[in-house]
Specification:
By secondary structure, the chain is α+β, with helices and mostly antiparallel strands. The chain has three helices and eight strands; from the N terminus they run βαβββββββαα. Strands 2, 3, 4, 5 and 6 form a five-stranded antiparallel beta sheet that branches. Strands 1-8-7 form a three-stranded antiparallel beta sheet. Bound molecules: zinc ion (ZN) (2 copies). The site of one zinc ion has 6 residues, from loops.
Length: about 160
């Protein structure tokens, strides 16, 4: 989405509204976009800088950080940010808000999601999903003090 910046730059208080869909290219590994990113808001000439205010929304699929099962989530990111006049890569007289929105999006993806609040995760030894039931791996939860005693008796 290109916004003409020439007029906006010359007129303090001028507002330019935008509303577009963004489908960033590229192989993201940590998540899958299930919908394009809906970007909506305004760019205002604040007198000394630009004020970007708006919202980014999309549905994504991420992996649960404990059991790795897929989690679908609606993500919404509110943006309110000031940019110096010189901060936009300007190709006179336009700037590409798509690039800026894509960057904001990338830094907003949550790194940690859980499929459920009490997800039990995977067994560290056999890899079984413990939400589906216990595995038969030995549970090594011996109190270190007891372990020391046990050693003593075996000597
Ligand atoms: Zn999980
Ligand atoms: Zn196991």
């Amino acid at each position: 989405m290109k916004i003409e910046i020439g007029r906006l730059k010359q007129e303090p208080g001028a507002v330019e509204a935008f509303d577009f869909l963004l489908s960033p290219a590229g192989g993201e590994e940590d998540y899958v976009l299930l919908t394009p990113i809906h970007v909506k808001g305004t760019l205002t000439n604040g007198g000394n800088d630009f004020r970007l205010a708006g919202r980014l929304e999309a549905k994504v699929r991420l992996a649960c950080s404990r059991c790795l099962s897929p989690v679908e989530q609606e993500l919404a990111v509110d943006v309110e940010e000031d940019y110096g006049y010189e901060e936009f890569a300007e190709v006179d007289p336009f700037i590409d808000l798509g690039d800026i929105a894509a960057q904001i999006w990338l830094t907003s993806i949550p790194m940690q999601v859980l499929c459920r609040e009490n997800c039990k995760g995977l067994c560290l030894q056999c890899g079984k999903d413990l939400n589906e039931g216990d595995c038969s791996c030995p549970k090594e939860e011996i109190d270190p003090r007891l372990a020391a005693l046990k050693d003593l008796f075996h000597k």
